[in-house]
Write a structure and sequence with these properties.
The protein has 2 domains: about 1-40 and about 235-360, no CATH class; about 55-215, no CATH class. About 50% of the residues lie in helices and about 15% in strands. It has 13 helices and 12 strands. Strands 1, 3, 4, 5, 6, 7, 8, 9, 11 and 12 form a 10-stranded mixed β-sheet that branches. A hairpin with a 2-residue loop joins strand 7 and strand 8. It is elongated and about 90 Å long.
Length: about 375
């Protein structure tokens, strides 16, 4: 089978490249979407809180919620038994260069919940229009101490660069962001449980707080976050991934079908000789389906090489992005490619097996 393919090396190489490009699209989209979700989970968990309280029907993806909760609620929540600290956080989304969440934080209470920032350069807020950025943001956007950020048409001066992993990449004073968006309001309250107190016990206490004042609020345990942030959390992402996978499968089918069908037409006499020498129809079908699977195997291997290369290029240009390609995703793409290979090779294999030796030998 391999020798048969090598008789037409250019056609084999082009078929492999076309198959690999079709599969590469699915691998890159899947790896990028998984990486972005995992990075969101890690950054949210990195805050160090045990619970987060949001208004009803809020998104688990921080930065997409509305600032409608009174920030004074955090002080009352901190008095609930089992709560060590609570901090209100206002959020906004910046569309400068790329989608990025901005946190408005009360630094003293935020530090009590998170354990504080690790400053790589500079220090805490030096004024109402000061900003902290993490090291990934600083590298991606080429900012440093003293740089100016344009947030909501206001100029903020970078006063510190901190280690990444505390929820957002840009932090500004809570009062300042509230004045620009919604005075006295916040989008989320992070809660730290006291040592030895379970998050479930505190959650139950919060739901019973003040006669059920928080019964309609969304209270999320951070330990459950990984199961809550899924492709369905991103509107339309699951459907988009399905379309990409189907598209890759269709392209894979068409490429293999065309390559093998052209090979059958171009080797009519050779197929007739094989049949005249006693090759059975089953042998012919096995021969062409084997070639289809080999094309799929080589194309799939090439797509993984292209994926690794694409990932390195993208991360070099956009270091804030993240890729994560689980083994099950690779196996799923491989199964789709194999199905496309079998379907694409089915008719050419049947056509070859149906060759009549006399008609094929008389073919011009």
């Amino acid at each position: 089978m391999l020798r048969q393919l090598m008789q037409h090396p250019v056609r084999m190489l082009l078929s492999m490249i076309m198959i690999s490009v079709a599969l590469l699209l699915g691998l890159v989209i899947k790896g990028l979407s998984n990486g972005v979700m995992q990075e969101k989970i890690q950054r949210t968990e990195g805050i160090g809180a045990d619970l987060m309280i949001q208004p009803p029907h809020s998104s688990y993806i921080l930065g997409l919620g509305e600032n409608v909760m009174p920030d004074a609620l955090a002080q009352k929540i901190s008095e609930v038994p089992g709560v060590e600290a609570a901090t209100p956080t206002a959020t906004n989304v910046s569309f400068t260069n790329r989608l990025e969440a901005i946190f408005g934080i009360d630094l003293p209470s935020f530090n009590r919940v998170t354990g504080g920032f690790q400053y790589l350069q500079g220090g805490p807020f030096s004024g109402p229009y000061a900003a902290l950025v993490d090291d990934v943001y600083a590298k991606t956007h080429k900012v440093h101490l003293g740089s100016t950020l344009n947030i909501l048409d206001q100029h903020f001066t970078v006063c510190g660069v901190v280690e990444h992993g505390r929820g957002a990449r840009v932090f500004v004073p809570l009062k300042t962001l509230q004045d620009l968006l919604a005075p006295g309001k916040c989008a989320v309250i992070f809660v730290k449980c006291a040592p030895g107190v379970s998050d479930l016990a505190v959650e139950n206490g919060l739901r019973a707080f003040a006669g059920g004042a928080l019964k309609d609020y969304q209270i999320t345990r951070m330990s459950d976050l990984a199961t809550l942030i899924t492709p369905s959390s991103f509107l339309g992402l699951q459907q988009f991934l399905l379309v990409i996978v189907v598209f890759a499968g269709v392209i894979n089918f068409l490429v293999i079908f065309l390559a093998l069908y052209v090979q059958v037409l171009g080797q009519t006499r050779e197929l007739g000789i094989l049949r005249a020498l006693g090759a059975s129809r089953r042998y012919m079908i096995r021969l062409f389906l084997g070639e289809a699977c080999l094309l799929c195997l080589f194309g799939g291997g090439l797509s993984l090489v292209f994926y690794l290369l694409t990932r390195e290029i993208v991360l070099w240009i956009y270091p804030a992005l993240n890729f994560l390609l689980p083994v099950e995703a690779v196996l799923r793409v491989a199964a789709i490619a194999l199905a496309g290979a079998v379907l694409g090779g089915a008719y050419p294999a049947y056509r070859a097996s149906a060759s009549e030796p006399i008609a094929a030998l008389a073919y011009e």
